[in-house]
């Protein structure tokens, strides 16, 4: 499994528009990417304009297909005017384990 942590930041004056764009990207990803196991955004408790997207993918091919998909390219471009800075992306190869 591939896990992605994408740290993204909205311009304070455009937080609502940014959230709308994140919701649209989430919906399009869930509807169109069969290799997507999880695609969720979480807001920071310290900074109301900071978010992390936690993604889980079946494999690297599924993530690559998502990054190249028209809905991702368009959704990401639509967010650009509302970003306060470039996102920080971390990609992990992971294996679930039990406790």
Automatic annotation (TrEMBL):
<dbReference type="GO" id="GO:0003824">
    <property type="term" value="F:catalytic activity"/>
</dbReference>
<feature type="domain" description="ABM">
    <location>
        <begin position="2"/>
        <end position="92"/>
    </location>
</feature>
<dbReference type="InterPro" id="IPR011008">
    <property type="entry name" value="Dimeric_a/b-barrel"/>
</dbReference>
<dbReference type="InterPro" id="IPR050744">
    <property type="entry name" value="AI-2_Isomerase_LsrG"/>
</dbReference>
<protein>
    <recommendedName>
        <fullName>ABM domain-containing protein</fullName>
    </recommendedName>
</protein>
<dbReference type="InterPro" id="IPR007138">
    <property type="entry name" value="ABM_dom"/>
</dbReference>
<dbReference type="Pfam" id="PF03992">
    <property type="entry name" value="ABM"/>
</dbReference>
